[in-house]
């Protein structure tokens, strides 16, 4: 390996060892690893083709993959070899693997789920492609300027992305706009604007390197590189106009997740990557099989939320306009290929596009949507409309064109049936199914938490990594003193490492024996970072009032980005930073309470924070968090959860046991009832002197003396339209936090509860989730088991 690295350094990067930078060493190592992936990757592709396996196509606007190097190393089983080789070359191994930029091609949960699914599909040996967009700029970088969020462009592609293979030969022309002509019965779309989608392939090899799939990301290029005539005239701007316009499509990730998003460019991005993906898989099918009617036997297309919902009309368009199928047959055939995952009930995140915009950008698709709508209404009179109030409703479109629709946790699926798709569920009672989310144990325990990983492997061997339910065997160790001590030791070493990092990056010294209480996720009102902060201020007050009490020392850690246009979320960030500044400077609570908010939370930062957490904050308003996946990562790494009965928290609590989970707050149905009570938030504030005091301090500018009015908007919101019931759940949350304080004082007992969490989380592996999709939705299987069956 050492020689291979030197060879790559020299012949692929053109450097010799004396002149190589950390980045050069990292690239050379990555290229050596990539070589090792290629054989299994190509071999897998060939096996899928030979066996005519059904392939899964996971269409997602986002793949939040983060860094890949450590995944690649450990999936290939090369941890020791890579370290030895790099050290033998006199280089710092950790520095080299940490040099890789974090590929942030997603916003949050939806994108990270897609990345975990790619890992599980490869580990299970299910032939699959992930299809998405190769954004030039991923999620913006966050910094704080006087406590307020500032955004700057992310630039991961300013250096070569070593894992990918550019495929200049994989190109599809994607049209926009124009008109539709008719010749006899046959429609032809004449777009007036074209871009080329070019594929870039990243191999995704599963655990132990037995199977490799492809993540194919599309980049938009102009059809003609530039206009020579304008160039010769000296009009350089005009000469590169078409190039600039085309490239705009894959230029940047939209930084909104569960917030509103209605821009024309976004619709173009959605169509761009969906159409390229559908054309790509159709070409593959026609080459391999040739019978268009056999498509559903070979193709399972999963739509990750409604972003690729245009896949339905696009598939129908190709079947009807290019392959000559009748409309009704085309719709049925397309439906048998398609399935749709819903990731949120928040009305503002359910996509709708004005019909006028649609007509301008995708005129033929709008006609087809009308046909789909008409077919649905003819078969099921009174069915909810896809076209409504002048909008195209992408949720209804995705539902109607899918043979299965799934929610992402038991509670969420139940609410999908009862709320957003109640009527469609009545009409199609078997279409909605549940697939509770999961996380890959490779990255979220084996990779990010070596201390705990090694302890578990000492006990169980290493087969748990691809069979996570084996962790249940650790339950027997809950009263084993020496094991519990080792478990505590692993957590403590992670906390020490995190403290060092926080001290370097935030300049705040932490006590590793304090309770590390962590809330990391997008900043959103429904996730209630604000409630966590109000509780922090209340605790600070009480510590100051009663300094002699035996307080449990706490470190409150926040991390997360706010969508740039989401004003309230940005105010929450500002308030957290304001409170942190005052509290951290207070000698009266020194050593007892600290607040840190490291900027630019991303996957890499999560990998640092999660293994070091004692308490996991999962405190969304019940009924609002579809599932959550961070909640699973924390529990797996031995943090206790403080949480509401929301999303997958419900199932986590069932698995780890209610005695090992700090539950508080209103239930989803109580939330609905409470909202109907007139003046509910004022009533809640009135009933809580503790909360009143905190709100009063913030209102008076206690934390923003230079601008005492700064947080009036937030306080006013809590009094008058506290849609997410921060005020109603505050007392119950505060009391539960104090209960956690008491439990934490008995560190042995805490550790044994934490162990029960780790030991009970096997079910939350994304391997289990993917097996569920394969069984209930895709009817897809690993070729290995398919062969075994036929034998
Ligand atoms: C998220 C949900 O908010 C989260 O609860 C869930 O765990 C995750 O998807 C994966 O299923 N939703 C998004 O990230 C999102 O962007 C809008 O939803 C479409």
From TrEMBL:
Pfam families to which the protein is assigned, alphabetical: Phosphorylase
Top EC class for this record: transferase
InterPro entries: Glycg_phsphrylas (IPR011833), Glyco_trans_35 (IPR000811), Pyridoxal_P_attach_site (IPR035090)
Keywords per UniProt: Carbohydrate metabolism, Glycosyltransferase, Pyridoxal phosphate, Transferase
Record field: catalytic activity: [(1->4)-alpha-D-glucosyl](n) + phosphate = [(1->4)-alpha-D-glucosyl](n-1) + alpha-D-glucose 1-phosphate
Cofactor: pyridoxal 5'-phosphate
EC identifiers of the protein: 2.4.1.1
Keyword Transferase attached: yes
Organism domain of life: Bacteria
Keyword Glycosyltransferase set for record: yes
Task performed by this protein: Allosteric enzyme that catalyzes the rate-limiting step in glycogen catabolism, the phosphorolytic cleavage of glycogen to produce glucose-1-phosphate, and plays a central role in maintaining cellular and organismal glucose homeostasis.
Family affiliation: Belongs to the glycogen phosphorylase family.
Protein name: Alpha-1,4 glucan phosphorylase
């Amino acid at each position: 390996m050492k020689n291979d690295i030197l060879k790559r350094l020299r012949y692929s990067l053109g450097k010799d060892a004396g002149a190589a930078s950390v980045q050069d060493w990292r690239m050379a190592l990555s290229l050596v690893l990539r070589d090792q992936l290629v054989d299994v990757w190509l071999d897998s592709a060939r096996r899928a083709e030979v066996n005519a396996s059904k392939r899964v196509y996971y269409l997602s606007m986002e793949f939040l993959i983060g860094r890949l190097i450590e995944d690649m190393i450990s999936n290939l089983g090369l941890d020791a070899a890579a370290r030895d080789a790099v050290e033998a070359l006199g280089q710092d191994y950790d520095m080299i693997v940490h040099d890789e930029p974090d590929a942030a091609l997603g916003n949050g949960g939806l994108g990270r789920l897609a990345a975990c699914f790619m890992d599980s599909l490869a580990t299970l040996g299910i032939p699959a492609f992930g299809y998405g967009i190769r954004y030039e700029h991923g999620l913006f970088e966050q910094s704080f300027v006087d406590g307020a969020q500032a955004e700057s462009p992310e630039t991961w592609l300013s250096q070569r992305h070593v894992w990918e293979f550019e495929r200049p030969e994989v190109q599809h022309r994607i049209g926009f706009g124009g008109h539709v002509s008719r010749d006899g019965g046959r429609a032809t779309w004449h777009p007036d604007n074209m871009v080329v989608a070019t594929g870039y392939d990243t191999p995704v090899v599963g655990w132990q390197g037995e199977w490799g799939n492809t993540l194919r990301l599309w980049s938009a290029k102009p059809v003609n590189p530039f206009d020579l005539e304008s160039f010769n005239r000296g009009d350089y701007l005009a000469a590169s106009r078409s190039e600039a316009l085309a490239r705009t499509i894959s230029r940047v990730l939209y930084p909104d997740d569960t917030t509103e998003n209605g821009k024309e460019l976004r619709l173009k991005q959605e169509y761009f990557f969906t159409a390229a993906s559908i054309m790509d898989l159709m070409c593959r099918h026609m080459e391999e099989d040739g019978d268009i009617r056999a498509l559903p036997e070979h193709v399972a297309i999963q739509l990750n939320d409604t972003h690729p919902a245009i896949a339905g009309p696009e598939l129908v368009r190709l079947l009807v306009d290019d392959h000559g199928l009748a409309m009704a047959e085309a719709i049925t055939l397309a439906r048998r290929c398609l399935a749709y995952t819903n990731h949120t009930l928040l009305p503002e995140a359910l996509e709708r596009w004005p019909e006028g915009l649609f007509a301008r950008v995708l005129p033929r698709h709008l006609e087809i949507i009308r046909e789909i709508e008409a077919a649905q209404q003819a078969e099921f009179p009174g069915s909810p409309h896809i076209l409504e109030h002048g909008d195209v409703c992408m949720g209804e479109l995705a539902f109607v064109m899918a043979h299965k629709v799934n929610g992402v946790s038991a509670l969420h699926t139940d609410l999908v049936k009862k709320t957003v798709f109640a009527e469609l569920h009545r009409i199609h009672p078997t279409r909605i199914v549940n697939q509770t989310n999961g996380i890959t144990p490779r990255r979220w325990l084996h990779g990010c938490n070596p201390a705990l990983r090694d302890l578990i492997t000492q006990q169980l061997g290493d087969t748990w990594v691809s069979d996570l339910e084996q962790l249940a065997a650790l339950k027997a160790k809950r009263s084993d003193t020496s094991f519990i001590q080792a478990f505590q030791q692993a957590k403590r070493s992670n906390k020490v490492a995190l403290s060092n990092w926080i001290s370097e990056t935030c300049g705040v010294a932490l006590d590793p024996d304090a309770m590390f209480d962590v809330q990391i996720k997008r900043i959103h009102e429904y996730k209630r970072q604000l409630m966590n902060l109000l509780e922090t201020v209340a605790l600070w007050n009480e510590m100051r009032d009663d300094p002699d009490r035996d307080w449990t020392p706490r470190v409150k850690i926040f991390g997360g980005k706010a969508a740039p246009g989401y004003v309230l979320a940005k105010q929450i960030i500002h308030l957290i930073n304001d409170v942190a500044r005052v509290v951290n400077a207070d000698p009266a609570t020194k050593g007892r309470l600290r607040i840190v908010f490291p900027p630019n939370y991303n996957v890499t930062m999560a990998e640092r924070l999660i293994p070091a957490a004692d308490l996991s904050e999962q405190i969304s308003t019940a009924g609002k968090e579809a599932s959550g996946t961070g909640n699973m990562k924390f529990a797996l790494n031995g943090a206790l959860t403080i949480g509401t009965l929301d999303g997958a928290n419900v199932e986590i609590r069932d698995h780890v046991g209610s005695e090992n989970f700090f539950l508080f707050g209103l239930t989803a149905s109580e939330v609905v009832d409470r909202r109907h009570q007139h003046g509910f938030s004022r009533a809640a504030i009135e009933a809580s002197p503790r909360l009143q005091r905190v709100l009063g301090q913030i209102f008076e500018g206690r934390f923003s003396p230079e601008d005492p009015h700064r947080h009036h908007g937030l306080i006013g919101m809590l009094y008058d339209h506290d849609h997410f019931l921060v005020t109603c759940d505050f007392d119950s949350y505060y009391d539960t936090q104090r209960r956690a304080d008491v439990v934490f004082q008995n560190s042995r007992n805490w550790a044994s509860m934490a162990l029960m969490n780790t030991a009970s989380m096997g079910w939350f592996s994304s391997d289990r989730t993917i097996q569920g999709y394969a069984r209930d939705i895709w009817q897809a299987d690993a070729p290995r088991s398919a062969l075994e069956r036929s034998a």
